[in-house]
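Appendix B, Record 12. Input sequence as logged:
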Amino acid sequence: MTTHTGTSETEGMSPSATTESLPPWRLAWQRLRRNRAAAGALVFLGMIAFACVFAPLVLPWDYATQNRVLGPVPPCTAHWLGTDTLGRDLLVRCLQGGQISLQIALIATVVSTFIGIAYGLTAGWVGGRTEMFMIHAVDVLCALPFTLLVILLTVIFGQDLFWIYMAVGAVSWLSMARIVRAQTCSLKTRPFVEAALCLGQTPRRILMRHLLPNLAGVIVVHATLTAPAVMLTEAFMSFLGLGVRAPMTSWGLLIKEGADVMEEFPWLLIFPSLAFSATLFALNFLGDGLRDALDPRAGNA
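Logged structural output:
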């Protein structure tokens, strides 16, 4: 009898009531899966990342090895995307370039996210003159030419990959700091924060255990939308010759090399540009999907 009653009650529950009982991350995942553009973008990014990491290990050519052919060869059965002006296989170089570009996007985004979270949380929680000084400092930095700062840091510290990661990440945190600071100012006046203060919890514990989890959705969405901007910055630097050094390559450097000879050998520009553009679109679709999925006002629709 008890078992029958429990089953009847479960069957009688509305779909919305059943959904509301799920944890927030499960609800967000369900909303993300229902967003076809975001789900497709996530699958595409996973495939392109897998190909860029593992395909160069099994393909018969190396990104720096010149083949027996002299000069560029158009796409054929031996070289699916053709070869570049030095006879190097373009498919392998596109995959290697994607590996570098995705690494820069990931590492620089992580660096900028950590700096922005620390700065924004501190400014929003402390308040007063300290907050005003910190925000005015951000405003001043935002007024400076972003790309020129990256170029300057790269010239000072060199074109090593590590310093390129640090240079791009070190100047990409400003918008994250502004968003985190604004959300912190709003959250610190909520009753649950006041209750934590009355219980004698330290500010550090309140920031880590109460404020930061409530900021997770905003941080994830903004970090996802920061990655395309980081990739565009790296591409622009490579286009100016300030990116990775030859024979290593990136999508930006491949596009630059293809643009120089696009009239004679158009495939050298077309294929890297398609890979770069498709990845940027996928990152933006995923960011939009995460924004909708993590929005608490989205409900269960």
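The chain has one domain: 24-58+91-298.
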